[in-house]
# Entry
Amino acid sequence: MNRLIAFGMLLASGAAFAQNGQYPVGYGPNPKLPEPEKSLIPTVNVAPVDVWKGDAKPVAPAGFTVTAYARDLAHPRWLYVLPNGDVLVAETNAPPKPEDSKGIKGKIMQMQMKKAGAVTPSANRITLLRDVDANGAAKTRAVFLKNLHSPFGMTLVGKDFYVANSDAVMRFPYEEGKTAITAAGAKVMSLPAGPINHHWTKNITASPDGKFLYMTVGSNSNVAENGIDKEEGRAAIWELERATGKSRLFATGLRNPNGMAWEPKSKALWTVVNERDELGNDLVPDYMTSVKDGGFYGWPYSWYGPNVDARVKEGRPDLVAKAIVPDYALGAHTASLGLTFYDGSAFPASYHGGAFVGMHGSWNRKPHSGYKVVFVPFADGKPAGPPQDFLTGFLTKDEKAAGRPVGVAVAKDGALLVADDVGNTIWRIVPAK
# Structure
């Protein structure tokens, strides 16, 4: 009874919030956008690492239980759930990119990333987690794939298992139930990389019919300051036809797309995107959006549709004129990375079909933003209300990061799984019994 009351209160407050249209600043389908701010010295406000102590853990809404599904991982960034329920975790970090940290600004950013717990050697492996014990932890842990190159996205089509390394898409033979792949992989497609490789994470997903693969490639800079020639094939989502190996740019102007998922009602591809920095505390909102074939989303020439970025030396008014306004803003500098639509049955009906977004957390904002997982309700294939905090507590009272959420996935039993790359933990959230 208490659980039902708690859920009722949660739903009632969410409904009232949506009815009054009270979206937080920088969120929603029509975000309020301030004027850009100019500053010689950008805001640098990284939350220093102070990882979880003892039994400390993130906080979910009333009526949910949080447990550590797996601890002591090596910078777990991304998750993928196989059809048999096995959970794959990409333990990974950036590859060497010597030209990305050149100059004073590059060195400062490297120091700040170290402070944030982001500078650790890449384990270059994918770990398999299987089943759940009485404490909510995985019963089995095994190295599924090793000797990869900064792996991130994963997807399975039939017996073909694909991994998006930082520089290429690799294909491996998969056998259901096996806890390891020992066969050598085959390179299917090269991905933009090189000595800068600023946004190194590459995600991958397959179309529902399995005919196509889609890969995200982030930009090589904040706003093309390294030269537009260094951005060839980047800030985009690529499409690869599996049968022929033919590839093409599917959508462009996406500064740093990460999470991708197929919206269950419309069957459209959606992505979350990290927008540009250094225009003020409340610009530019990260966002999630349906992805239109051939669509251009502004970067680097404009933000949130037609808002021209004056920092880009060579403007492209022709491209700005057709820049697509994203579907839903997710707040400035939240570093929204993870995206999954809830397709399980364990959660209350209000969560069914909605989106969970993993927000890794800001460095270019005071006060901090992100450092949490939010839920966005959907109806008829579109966002249908303000975001709701779902998993919080990653920031301590003194503004230190006990963890930072990245990838999110729905387990076969309907639990929500969250990869915490600073806490080196996979969190599992289920309704309380």
Summary: The chain has three helices and 29 strands. Confidence is low (pLDDT under 50) at residues 1-19.
